[in-house]
Amino acid sequence: MATYDYIIVGGGSSGCVLANRLSENPAHNVLLIESGRRDADPWIHIPATFFKVLGKGIDIHPYASNPDKGLNGRPSIVPQGNVLGGGSSVNAMIYVRGHRNDYDTWLQMGCQGWSYEDVLPAFRSLENNERLNGQFHGRKGSLSVSDPRHRHPLSEAFVKAATEIGIPHNDDFNGADQAGVGFYQSTTYGGRRWSSAQAFLREAEKRSNLTVLTERRVARILFEGLTAIGVELLDGTIFKASREIALTAGAIATPKILQLSGIGEGAHLSSLGIKVVADLPGVGANYQDHLEVPVQGETREPISILGHDKGLRAVGHMLRYLTSHRGLLASNVVECGGFVDTAGTGQPDVQFHVLPVLIGFVDREPEPGHGLSIGPCYLRPRSRGWIRLKSSNPTEQTDFNANLLSDPADIETLVRGVETAIRILDAPALAKLVKRRVLPRPGVEKDPEALRDYIRQSAKTVFHPAGTARMGRADDRMAVVGPDLKVRGIEGLRVCDASVMPTLVSGNTNAPTMMIAARGAAFMTGKTISG
Ligand SMILES: Cc1cc2nc3c(=O)[nH]c(=O)nc-3n(C[C@H](O)[C@H](O)[C@H](O)COP(=O)(O)OP(=O)(O)OC[C@H]3O[C@@H](n4cnc5c(N)ncnc54)[C@H](O)[C@@H]3O)c2cc1C
Q1: SS3 at position 15
Q2: Contact at 8 Å (CB) between 404 and 291?
């Protein structure tokens, strides 16, 4: 039975950061176990083709919640990366850290040492920003962050139209002020995706003290008393850990593994015949996700990217990309957007993701024709769901109650987001290009009931599940990990992924998750991060 100093469960955004930082010391033997394949599909690495990767469905796991009342009985389908690099290998590459108040709120919730000032050095230590530097940005990290190499005319028009209705322009959403519209920076390098695997694993895999296993799934953690001592894979293989185990399987898989291992609500686990190691009722609770609603306009001319992945046009784009790493294929497609304070609280509560094409989703066809899609998304949901085992069988799906839009405040934020997006669509820079609004159907916005029904019927995930093993104080009954990311009451086990977020950050979750992992690695090795 092989023994390692550290075992990392899940080779996604956070797992690859940990693999890198823990293997920096040649004296440490590190094992990373990932359920998906290696990230060998070439479409992963070309920014604009991430839609192909999602469409193929091989490198993702399509989690689906139970039918959700808040979504008019639809399930929330939440594809997650199932490949080396995890979400960072299949995502839209937007580089956003959230609002400084997010982290200050975590501190107020009892997460000592997680204020904005505390986490900023970790963000900076990871980052290699091609344009920005100084107080907020890093240049020495392995995570390449770049400005867009391609700006679609519809993206340009969105940014201009938004400023026409009075939203300020912002060219750094991760700087002094998050508010405003503009082009997103992305985790790309030289026109290629810069996933966590690319940034942190490629370098670390050259070290002889790091072992990476792919296509192997962890079923549970093994304990001796209250100390985690190893992991058992689905095929029965056991690996032992002499120092620590880090769970980085993502916010949907991590609470499942914890519960299968005997960590969760005691009475529930006992009822399934699972021996209780730690009675932590917060495991699987506090599920949160960002939802967006489509606001779409059909353009007068065929100027969107529809059809550009086919025939001679596709060949042209590929030739340009192969010769210069520029052009449409170097685009992350969701090139622009921004953050707007729709409630007048002084802090943005809605984010826009904008695509120069009419998009559908896994459960619906796109509207026909050329156009653009604006996705207003709430930033700080109040609704909370939960993920609980149905049985002790690791291959069985969980009881996944997303419970989205159960808090009326979330619907009202989306109402304001949709209304703002419609105003942007109607502003001169876009009105010039847009023939008619297709979604929501004209008139729906004037009928409060119809608009709320449209939101329930069309809201979809922005792929940011979080919060299911949340961090908190030792006396907080629902906290699963402490501010040092150690599972409460257990030795040798930490959670270092998006599960630990007490509340979702106000923005995309890839960079914040990597920050959490970098801090987790520092806690494990006793190092201080200097940003
Ligand atoms: C389609 C999509 C678009 C997104 N767009 C953006 C964006 O533009 N910007 C942004 O900031 N964020 C984006 N995100 C979100 C971001 O990528 C995630 O928040 C982030 O990747 C989460 O990191 P994680 O380490 O918690 O989990 P993941 O990166 O999901 O990693 C978990 C890993 O664990 C593996 N795993 C699961 N179960 C097991 C098991 N039992 N045994 C072994 N391995 C296991 C999985 O295969 C996976 O590789 C997007 C996500 C998706 C899916």
Answers
A1: helix
A2: yes
Q: Is 268 a catalytic residue?
A: no
How confident is the model at residue 441, as a pLDDT? Answer: 97
| Of 21, 33, 34, best ligand 1 pocket probe by most atoms within 8 Å of the beta carbon | 34
DSSP 8-state assignment for residue 198: I
Tell me which H or E stretch contains 55.
helix 50-56
- Residue 293 three-state SS: coil
CB-based contacts of 499: which residues, under 8 Å, 6+ apart?
247, 250, 251, 254, 255, 466, 467, 468, 469, 470, 480
Judging by DSSP bridges, how do beta strands 218-224 and 227-233 pair with one another? antiparallel
How far, in Å, is the centroid of ligand 1 from the Cα of 35?
12
Checking if the pLDDT of 531 tops 80, the result is: no
Mean pLDDT of the chain: 97
Query: What's the rounded Cα separation, in Å, for the pair 402 and 171?
Result: 34
CB atoms within 10 A of CB 308: 16
- DSSP class of residue 97? -
What are the b/e assignments for 221-243, b being 16+ CB within 10 Å? bbbeeeebbbbbbeeeeebebee
Give the residue whose CA is nearest to atom 46 of ligand 1: 82
pTM of the model: 0.98
